Amino acid sequence: MAAEPDTRDTYRITDSPWFWATAFALMALVGIGLIARKFDVRQRQIEGRFLGRQQAAVERSRRAAGLPPIDLAEEARDREMAQPARIVPLWTLASAAALTVLGSGGMLWREWHRQAARVTRARETAR
Question: How do residues 16-75 score in pLDDT, each as one tens digit?
């Protein structure tokens, strides 16, 4: 009959929640990097529609208040000039994922070294 290993001496990195937090946050960063161009195009479309609906709502309220109407076609602006930067930028999500990678990676490193120190101490006291 084989002796079972002492559970204190066995440490699998995949048992750590910090490993999984680091792994999933890294995959999020990779995913963000892969979709960045498509996100920008799609977000530009969504924000353009939002700005158009916002301008139309302003025009409706002007007409309801009895003010002279504004021709929305004449007031239309080039999208690039009207909104060069995104209202919802992707860097915020990428920053959150990067901070998660750094934080969970640091905690994983700390846990790994503490476990290694415990194993070393246990081996020294067993002698």
Answer: 999 999 999 999 999 999 999 898 888 888 888 888 888 888 888 888 888 887 776 666
Q: Count other Cβ atoms within 10 Å, centred on residue 25.
A: 20
> Residue holding tokens 């999020």?
28
For residues 10 and 24, give the distance between their C-alpha atoms in angstroms, rounded to a whole number. 24
Tokens 């994922």 sit on residue: 97
Please, are residues 13 and 105 in contact by the beta-carbon 8 Å criterion? no
- Provide the token pair at 33: 């990097």
Whose CA is closest to 32, among 97, 87, 112?
97
Whole-prediction pTM value?
Answer: 0.66
